[in-house]
Specification:
Elements (H helix, E strand, L loop, with lengths): L1 H10 L15 E2 L4 H6 L5 E2 L2 E6 L11 H9 L5 E5 L7 H6 L7 E4 L4 H11 L2 E7 L5 H13 L3 E6 L12 E7 L4 E7 L7 E4 L9
Parallel strand pairs: 3-7, 3-8, 4-5, 4-6, 6-7
Antiparallel strand pairs: 1-2, 8-9, 9-10
Length: 208
């Protein structure tokens, strides 16, 4: 009996999942009701690595703007760090979306993989975003472990061609421009269905 209770407690740990009967995972609301309904945890995971496959600078930040606003407005919030963004963030546009710029830190593109791993592992961030074109499968495994260790949501932006490569990220999405907003396809996740949907939030002109 004690053994069954121990196993039950173990299976409640957020790092363990069992297909469609996965243990509940703490999450941040995405800010899009339709997207939350499709995401395996009902929102963005609070820690761990997710991958967003997109053409850099094509509006990939659209799906994260409500989250960035939420995180940077928290009284007890930690940093939100951007590593090697392809375009200089458009500050007025971000502010218009409710993002508090004083809680955003930028890291240059030199050694982006090393920088991203250190930021994730530091424990000083609620979220860390990085744009890295080329990675090895073992690199994503290291990043996933670093994000879990630092209790940080890591968002790794990669080219769409990376969909052919294996990844240790717990969630993988593809984002592409649409007539109004962007189209999001869930490619990998706990109980993911491979479904796609269109999101039409207000966009920040000039932001990536």
């Amino acid at each position: 009996m004690d053994g069954d209770a121990n196993i039950a407690r173990l299976l409640e740990h957020p790092a363990i999942w069992r297909g469609r009967s996965a243990a509940p995972q703490a999450c941040w609301p995405s800010g899009f009701t339709a997207l939350d309904a499709r995401l395996p945890a009902g929102g963005w995971p609070r820690s761990g690595l997710i991958e967003v496959l997109a053409r850099f600078g094509s509006g990939e930040l659209t799906i994260l703007l409500p989250l960035l606003a939420q995180l940077t407005q928290r009284a007890s919030g930690r940093w939100c760090v951007w590593v090697a963004p392809p375009l200089l963030p458009f500050a007025p546009g971000l502010s218009a979306q409710g993002v508090r710029l004083e809680r955003i830190a930028l890291v240059s593109g030199e050694q982006p993989l090393w920088s991203f791993e250190q930021v994730l592992r530091s424990g000083a961030c609620d979220a860390a975003l990085a744009w890295i074109a080329h990675l090895r499968p073992r690199d994503t495994r290291r990043l996933q472990l670093a994000a879990t260790h630092g209790r940080t949501l890591g968002v790794l932006f990669r080219a769409r061609g990376a969909a052919r490569e294996p990844s240790a990220a717990q969630l993988r999405l593809a984002v592409s421009p649409a007539a109004l907003g962007v189209r999001v396809t869930i490619l990998k996740g706990r109980s993911a269905t491979g479904s796609s949907l269109q999101l039409t939030p207000p966009l920040c002109e000039g932001s990536s």
